Amino acid sequence: MFTLPDLDYDYSALAPHIAAEIMELHHSKHHQAYVTGANTAWDKLAEARDTGNFATVAKLEKDLAFNLGGHINHSLAWKNMSPDGGGEPVGALAEAIGEGFNGFATFKKQFTEVAMTIQGSGWSVLAWDVCGSRLSTFQQYDHQGNLPAAQIPLLVLDMWEHAFYLQYRNVKADYVAAWWNVVNWADVAARYEKARAQAGGLL
Q1: H helices within the chain, ranges in order?
Q2: pLDDT tens sequence across 52-111
Q3: Would strands 134-141 and 122-129 be described as parallel, antiparallel, or unpaired?
Q4: Inter-CA distances, 173 with 96, 104, 201, Å
Q5: How far is it, in rounded angstroms, from Cα 189 to Cα 200?
Q6: Mind giving me the DSSP string for 91-129?
Q7: Whose CA is closest to 116, among 180, 69, 27, 167?
Q8: What pTM did the predictor assign?
Q9: Most CB contacts within 10 A, which of 18, 49, 63, 133?
């Protein structure tokens, strides 16, 4: 039901900022594990319904949330990066970031701080806040925890160790600094426009 998406670029395309070895392991092994885990949990939930044995439903739903969160976050992360990325956003997204964060430079510092202060494993997220009709940043623990209500993710940064350790060891600051060079602002801008257009019917 859930499948590993193909990348829009080769594993080596984001080097030197993100090494090919990391990309291959991250995509083909780690992301694939979340796809497999989500499918397994989904199948076991279907089996529970068929047999009427719901003793493990709570655990299975947690397994599904964790693995499906990993699948969705990674699927977004691959699109958020590009060999032609970096620089700053333009157009409506740039205006929204400027208004919401007192300029791009301040936004970049805030997003970086969100990433650098995650305790354990998680993601730094830029999202469209449906309720507030504005951009927001937040930490997402693991793949699914601490997710505020009514947030549509636009840009995500994976801060699990498997995303950077082979290349940057424990120097997370260098990894985050390098990641800014591959951010696909065209993808983020398209998601921003789509989120704003869809959000009006949610409340």
Answers
A1: 20-25, 32-51, 57-79, 91-101, 104-116, 165-168, 172-179, 185-199
A2: 999 999 999 999 999 999 999 999 999 999 999 999 999 999 999 999 999 999 999 999
A3: antiparallel
A4: 26, 19, 39
A5: 18
A6: HHHHHHHHHHHTSHHHHHHHHHHHHHT-SSSEEEEEEEE
A7: 180
A8: 0.95
A9: 18
